[in-house]
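Quick one:
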Amino acid sequence: MRLPPPFLWISAVLITALAITGYFTRETWMAWISASHPEKESDQAARPSDEPKMLKLTPQARKNLNLIAQPVKLQSYWRSIQVPGVIVDRPGHSDRVVTAPAAGVIAKIHAFPGDTVKSGDRLVTLRLIGEQLQSTQSELLRTTREVQIVKKQRGILGELAKTGLVQEPKLIELDSQLLRFEASIQAYRQDLLTRGLTRAQIDGISEGKFVSEIDVHVPPLAEDHRIAVSVEGNQTLLGYEVEELKVELGQQVNAGNLLCLLAHHHSLYIEGRSFKREAPWLEKAAANGWPVRVEFPEEESDAWPTLNSTFTIRHLANTVDPDSRTFAFFVPLTNQARSYEKEGRTLLVWRFRPGQRVRLHVPVEEFKDVFVLPAGAVVRDGAEAYAFVQNGDLFQRRPVHVVHEDRLNVVLANDGAVRAGVHYLAQGAAASLNRILKAQHAAGGLPPGAHFHADGSLHIPGK
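Output:
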């Protein structure tokens, strides 16, 4: 048998080897062929983009989301630290103690806790039992009588001195004695005034009408307490509120004993508590007079007039509480009040009360020329943050740079992603918009009539 030439069977072996190799490496060389032949433009258009950027919402969907778009504007924003606080009395302004001017027994009580009293109103009536007060009244009466006698003698001797029967030194002696008596009378009268007696009562003592009972009155109002509020349409000057009554009927008290505690909550403090590491920020805010934002979470602000006050730190405490390891700082607070009449008495209601909890936002850093949006206007997706720009019914998702965010606001850099006065940004529901956008992208193409609900779910007619 004749064999084929050597080159023939060698070629057959090579062809067989190439075929086997091509079969087992078909995935690799087919990918190369696909890469060398780009898809047609129509095929690329049919394939959804990897990064969805635009969605369309009906007016009803925007209402369901409570979606509002507003133009953005550049502004300044203060980064702040949140500090807990509590409303406290302001020492020397809020409270006033009333003490007994003399020893006595509580005979009557005229004002009770909760009552509003004005300067000069009666608080309690004391029946006097002190020996010193009785002695002062006796000495005032005796000295007054002595003055009357000396004046009478001086008048008689003065007439005799004109005839030469009385020498001049005798008149001088009487005049000196009269001056001493008058000085004593002034001292006795002043002592009785400080013990709560009125001038009319003291004049009566000079005539022999001794006082056995005295009324303790409300002291004069300080200048910063002289405020007026409307009571049934009339302007009424407010005084103090009886906060605590320290005595009972029939109780014996000595001079200086506490009778009652009066309160006037017009001038208060907000006491904040912060850790020592935050002291430099607080010191800087206090020194520069930066305004502090105060939240009153426990009150209904709609029931009161707008509080047009600027809060600043007055001073920082120089001691640290050993238990909480915090130090205090104080912000002045001017209170609001209203009153009403009931059973012939004026009762007072203050807007802010000692013990009420607040939140303080102390500024520590200013961001200038930034965009400030509500916290719900930006959504995070991994390392990216997005806001939504409105153009009619369309909302375009745009990446933004967040320089700061807190519980209420998010601050965006002015880097050209959005432009002031040009772009309208959704002021909330960014998370819902992002879900809807992803759902639309995942669906690829939508059949006729298909649409998305506000929660991101897809609705297809007939299914």
